[in-house]
Write a structure and sequence with these properties.
The chain is α+β, with helices and mostly antiparallel strands. Helices cover 38% and strands 20% of the residues. It has 4 helices and 4 strands; from the N terminus they run H-H-E-E-H-E-H-E. It has a 4-stranded mixed β-sheet with strand order 2-1-4-3. The longest helix is centred in the N-terminal third of the chain and has 13 residues.
Length: 120
């Protein structure tokens, strides 16, 4: 897939008026809308088989926590806490894209989730 992405970019540089650049531009903007999030379990919280997820930048921490809770089939009475880089819990209304810009590394954002307070 990366080979396909490189070829149109090279074509775009050589032929800026070619009809191929608009699809390439839309592909780039779609990639920028989603970021890679690596989810890791802490303590006795169940582990997700799929650890790497593509998440929209505008998604909030609260909606991500709700998704994880549904995916793990947690009871409504169980809370889920999300930590960034094993250090702090962001506010529920914080957007994942902002966290990625500030704390992302190697092209992904590492988030730890647990059912009880672990850090900070």
């Amino acid at each position: 897939m990366s080979d396909n992405a490189e070829s149109p970019t090279e074509t775009q540089k050589e032929e800026p008026s070619a009809p191929q650049p608009p699809p390439d531009d839309s592909t780039i903007s779609e990639d920028k809308k989603k970021i890679d999030v690596l989810l890791k379990a802490v303590g006795d919280t169940p582990i997700m088989k799929t650890k790497k997820w593509a998440v929209e930048k505008g998604r909030t921490v609260q909606s991500l926590a709700q998704f994880i809770a549904r995916f793990l089939k947690l009871d409504a009475s169980e809370q889920l806490i999300i930590y960034v880089n094993q250090s702090f819990a962001p506010s529920p209304d914080q957007e994942v894209g902002v966290l990625f810009e500030c704390f992302g590394s190697d092209g992904k954002l590492v988030l730890h989730y647990c059912k009880s307070q672990a850090w900070g």
